[in-house]
Design goal:
Layout: E1 15-17, H1 25-30, E2 39-40, E3 46-47, E4 51-56, E5 66-74, E6 80-89, H2 90-109, H3 113-125, H4 162-168, H5 181-194, H6 198-208, H7 214-223, H8 225-241, H9 249-253, E7 256-257, E8 271-272, H10 273-286, H11 291-296, H12 309-322
Antiparallel strand pairs: 1-4, 2-3, 4-5, 5-6, 7-8
Helix pairs in contact: 5-7, 5-10, 5-12, 6-8, 7-10, 8-10, 10-12
């Protein structure tokens, strides 16, 4: 266990900067995990993604009373363009951890075994996509690999070709996407529309912090695990409640979809149609949906049993969310 005495003392003044010392002694001293601890905003919502970079010491012989925390703001290419910084009381930061950990634990305790299983499935389904320049630090990706976007358009219930994926040694979900400017701009357009929905806005506001540009929020949707889970489950609820209008046949029935591109092995190789639609909506909001491919792929939903049903449903959801509610 690290103690305050183990943290290097500053040469001048009373701020101990430690962000260049791995592992981070400030985070360890506070018993928090960088990028994973809770920060409460002035409006009462909670934010994550911050790191503890410095302790502010009190008079000689007294414990540190403050901590400097920072959060990077990146562009669509994963390049840091700004760094947010604030100073909070150590006591207040620790209170936040206790408060929100208890809330999280209480919510999880209330789930039945079936609900816990569903939650775990959806967490995997809505996990952030692998994007070139934005992959996790633990994942060394030497070069961008274009994703086969056929999986976003196919509606056939083909069983995945296991031999094909076995030979490649990597599932489609693990491939890295290259973002295209046209797709990101389209996502920004869709985002401005869905923000008219008060519930969607409320969900996003919990995580967006000081972000106000559409491109920054699109990136946030692409990278923030908790935000993606909340948006994805909200969309499924809308579809379950029938609030988005009459859906194509397969979405109405909520059949199992077995994507022929693989990548869902940890979900048994299949997902529910409404779950798949929710994932498509996220792709359309996070800039990873290939709009050029979509233009070339025909949609035929005559009598609700043609091709492109999931894509049609995803666009219908976006249309519903973009309507001004009374």
């Amino acid at each position: 266990m690290i103690t305050e005495a183990d943290i290097p003392k500053p040469i001048d003044r009373s701020v101990v900067v430690t962000d260049t010392l791995p592992p981070n002694p400030v985070a360890e001293f506070l018993n928090v995990v960088d990028n994973g601890f809770f920060v409460e905003r002035s409006d009462g919502t909670v934010d994550t993604g911050w790191r503890a970079v410095a302790l502010i010491e009190g008079p000689v012989g007294e414990r540190a009373y403050g901590v400097v925390i920072q959060k990077d703001v990146t562009n669509e290419h994963g390049v840091v363009i700004d760094t947010l910084e604030k100073t909070v009381l150590v006591e207040r930061l620790q209170e936040w951890q206790k408060k929100y950990e208890e809330q999280k634990s209480e919510a999880e305790r209330q789930l039945s075994p079936a609900e816990q299983y569903t939650k775990q499935r959806l967490e995997r389904l809505f996990a952030p996509p692998r994007v070139f320049g934005e992959q996790l630090e633990s994942e060394a990706v030497p070069e961008a690999v274009e994703l086969d976007y056929d999986y976003l358009f196919g509606d056939e219930d083909d069983v995945p070709d296991e031999s094909q994926h076995a030979s490649s040694g990597v599932s489609v979900e693990k491939k890295v996407l290259s973002l295209h400017e046209e797709d990101v701009h389209k996502a920004e357009f869709e985002l401005r529309g869905v923000m008219k929905d008060t519930d969607i806005k409320k969900i996003i506001d919990q995580y967006k912090g000081d972000f106000y540009r559409a491109k920054d929020i699109v990136e946030l949707i692409r990278n923030n695990t908790d935000l993606r889970y909340q948006l994805g489950t909200y969309i499924i609820d809308l579809l379950d409640d029938g609030k988005c209008g009459v859906m194509p046949y397969r979405i109405s029935r909520d059949d199992w979809k077995m994507p022929n591109h693989g990548g869902y092995e940890d979900l048994g190789g299949k997902v529910r149609s409404r779950e798949y639609v929710a994932k498509l909506v996220l792709a359309m909001l996070d800039g990873t949906f290939d709009t050029s491919k979509s233009k070339q792929d025909p949609i035929n939903t005559v009598r609700g049993d043609g091709l492109g049903q999931h894509r049609t449903a995803a666009k219908q959801v976006l249309s519903y969310l973009s309507q001004t509610k009374e």
